[in-house]
DNA sequence: TTTTTTGGAAACCGTATGGTTTCATTTATA
DNA sequence: TATAAATGAAACCATACGGTTTCCAAAAAA
């Protein structure tokens, strides 16, 4: 739970965190409200939220004794753009296997 | 290195694997050629490639003593679509913080 | 002013992750 | 045929990950 390579891609790799993102995208919630959506313990959820804050996908505001969590998903643009780089792979009529078989073998010497 | 929750999101969470995807998207390569692009050992690269195959992003073909690796990135469509769900967060003129402050507090009781 | 509510923090735990080195095997090549 | 090339596989290793329980502190509500 240290601050290591905490980038967006790593943050969204966990399904629980993607669920939390889905929750907070619709409305901000305090920690306990978020935890109520899961069977795991509150501290576990808190750790996920911390990871999301470490890469900026979630921002936290303390109001009195409550910690309000809000989504700030501008960081997902990076993910979208990276994935879209490879759109041809699911748009093309040409399948990946065909592309491979058609490939010039001299390309393989890099 | 077992086959656990090997989904696409987890597979692309590692920067080395994203680099491998970038390499193989342009041309298929055998294992050693892939490993040449990195400072880490060949077995380490091989393990990354195995993870990529476990979720279908890479397909492997054995030709003689060589293992040719090809990208099959249709699985990234899922990632693109998931991220695009939240496009509003980076398209809107309305910033996330403003949206939060404007929010009806009664929304927070879910 | 007690008592809840809300959440932070610490200590732990088992397993996954990302890497290494070493060795064996198969296939080309000299 | 002897040698080199390309991998697979196994055994390790340190640390990160995802979770738990327990306890403490602060703020709100009775």
Q: Any idea how many domains of chain A?
A: 2
Overall pLDDT metric of chain A: 87
Helicity level of chain A: 40-55%
Low confidence ranges of chain A: 1-5, 104-110
CATH architecture term of the largest domain in chain A:
Orthogonal Bundle
What's the CATH H-level superfamily name of the largest domain in chain A? Winged helix-like DNA-binding domain superfamily/Winged helix DNA-binding domain
Order of helices and strands of chain A: HHEHHEEHHH
Report on this structure.
Chains A, B: It comes from Dyadobacter fermentans. Chains A, B: GO terms for molecular function: DNA binding. Chains A, B: Residues 1-91 form the HTH arsR-type domain. Chains A, B: This is DNA-binding transcriptional ArsR family regulator. Chains A, B: Keywords: DNA-binding. 2 copies of one chain form a homodimer. With 110 residues, chain A is of the alpha+beta class. Chain A folds into 2 domains: 8-74, Winged helix-like DNA-binding domain superfamily/Winged helix DNA-binding domain (Arc Repressor Mutant, subunit A, Orthogonal Bundle), CATH 1.10.10.10; 76-102. In chain A, 50% of the residues lie in helices and 13% in strands. Chain A is built from 7 helices and 3 strands; from the N terminus they run H-H-E-H-H-E-E-H-H-H. Chain A has helices at residues 8-11, 15-26, 31-36, 42-54, 76-84, 88-91, 96-102; strands at 29-30, 58-63, 66-71. Chain A has a 3-stranded antiparallel sheet. In chain A, strand 2 and strand 3 form a beta hairpin. The longest helix of chain A is centred in the middle third of the chain and has 13 residues, at 42-54. In chain A, 28% of the residues are buried. The interface between A and B is large, with 43 and 42 residues.
